[in-house]
Amino acid sequence: MSKKIIIICLLFLCCKLQAQSSAESKLGTWYMYNGSHKVSDKFSLKTMAHFRYYEVTSEFQQEIYRLGVNYSFNPKTNLTLGFSYATGDLEHDVPSIHLYEYRFYEDLNIKSKWGKFNAAHRIRLEHRFIHKNNTQDVTQSWVRYNLNVAYPLSKKWSVYAFNEIFLNLDRGKRFVQNWTGAGFLHKLNKNLKLKMGYFQIKAPTTVLKRLQLGVILNTDFTKKTI
Q1: Where are the beta strands (DSSP E) in 93-135?
Q2: Which residues, listed in sequence order, are joined to residue 88 by a DSSP beta bridge?
Q3: How far apart are alpha carbons 26 and 31 in whole angstroms?
Q4: Per-position DSSP letters for 127-169, written without gaps between them
Q5: Are the C-beta atoms of 43 and 226 separated by less than 8 Å?
Q6: 144, 126 in Cβ contact below 8 A?
Q7: 3-state secondary structure of 190
Q8: Each residue of 124-147: pLDDT tens digit?
Q9: pLDDT tens digits along 94-113
Q10: Is the CB of residue 169 less than 8 Å from the CB of residue 134?
Q11: What stretches in the chain show pLDDT beneath 70?
Q12: What is the dihedral of CA 202, 215, 154, 184, to 10 degrees?
């Protein structure tokens, strides 16, 4: 029954937003893969690939790939050093054919328990090297703070909510974006989860609405298989 309710809510939201005409009011979608692959007691690899659209299945916005090395200090605290590559279109219906970007990033991740709620804090520093076109290259330093809170509904299902703020350290008006959303996680087995959610991207002059449809893969190469 819970699956049917989730699907009906997402379909209703999709139809309502797609009926509106402006780019900001259209419902976009992020198709996401996120992975964590443990290679020793302390180290793991973090992998990510996102394909993002201004509409549900069309009007390309961005694709981004990320690879990181994670070190665990203890079960509650870990650090990731990584690299990402992205291409994208800055505007709806207007291709940015020469745009691409490299990023180096550092994540500090802290887990905490609030009763039955599981909280995850992430502070990210990003060093961004943006090639806008053939004559313009830009470097920027961003800091991001993400708070994600999850609550288990059953052994297979959980609900989550999150908020992330983005600041550009290289300009006077530092605020860039704020992401706020919620959704559901469904555990298929010990290694694989499905993610379904909705969130809003609030920028100084626009508000974008997005669905999140994702796969989360966690593997442990330290365990021997027979």
Answers
A1: 100-114, 117-133
A2: 62
A3: 16
A4: EEEEEEETTEEEEEEEEEEEEEEEEESSSSEEEEEEEEEEEET
A5: no
A6: yes
A7: coil
A8: 999 999 998 778 899 999 999 999
A9: 556 778 999 999 999 999 99
A10: no
A11: 1-23, 91-96, 225-226
A12: 20
3-state secondary structure of 173: coil
Nearest C-alpha neighbor of 124 from the set 149, 142, 150 = 142
7, 10, 13, 18: CA torsion to nearest 10: -100
- Residue 213 and residue 186 in contact, taking contact as beta carbons nearer than 8 Å: no
Please, are residues 62 and 87 in contact by the beta-carbon 8 Å criterion? yes
| CA distance linking residue 108 with residue 89, whole number of Å | 29
Q: Which two tokens mark 141?
A: 């330093």
Taking the C-alpha atoms of residue 42 and residue 74, their distance in angstroms, rounded to an integer, is: 8
Cβ–Cβ under 8 Å, residues 184 and 197? yes
Query: Which residue bears the tokens 């990210």?
Result: 124
- Residues 200, 96: Cα–Cα separation, whole Å: 23
Give 16's contacts (C-beta < 8 A, 6+ positions apart). Answer: none
- For 157, half-sphere exposure in the C-beta direction (CA atoms, 13 angstrom radius) is 10
213 vs 196: CA distance, rounded Å:
5
Rg (CA), the chain: 18
pLDDT of residue 93: 58
**Beta strand pairing call for 77-88 and 60-74:** antiparallel
C-alpha–C-alpha distance, residues 173 and 30, integer Å: 28
Q: Are 214 and 181 in contact (CB under 8 A)?
A: no
Nearest to 170, CA basis, from 111, 126, 207: 126
